[in-house]
Amino acid sequence: MGDDVVIGLLRAVNVGGRTLTSAVLRATASDLGYRDVVTYAASGNVVLRAVHGAPQVAADLGAALTTAAGFEVRVVTRTSRQWDRAVAALPFADAARDDPARLALVAWDGPVDTTRVDAFDPARYGHEQLAWHGSELYAYYPDGMGRSRLTLPVLERAAGRTGTSRNWRTVLALAALAHERAGA
Description:
38% of the residues lie in helices and 26% in strands.
């Protein structure tokens, strides 16, 4: 079996006293035997090469980081191919071009229940635009994410899943890092 390039997204680190440095993230991933490990920003993003699939990386890296950090660290993973499909499926092309800082991709820890999300009414929270797509959610926050009442915990309750959100600039930066690793 060949290597997979895997993108790991840590949930809720470096907020609320839950500090986990990029150096610890890189070292922990390397200690698990992952190669070409690189982190992006200080918000819990890692791209690496692994001989086993993304779900195993999520489980192993989450367990090792939980031990290293002393608090639970959840990791959501995607292969480079899955990430590319998520980027290509973006329904908000104008927002991506004109306002990428207000556009987010929420990566869920599995597929959402469509009957649940179909019943969810985001208009109760403001005028954000949402598009549910398999294990991802695209969210455009025209007034900014920080002002929105449509928070990740609200979206998690609607989806019935655990997720983590990245703005579109970060999504594209992680795609570029994954492509670099694929060529390494």
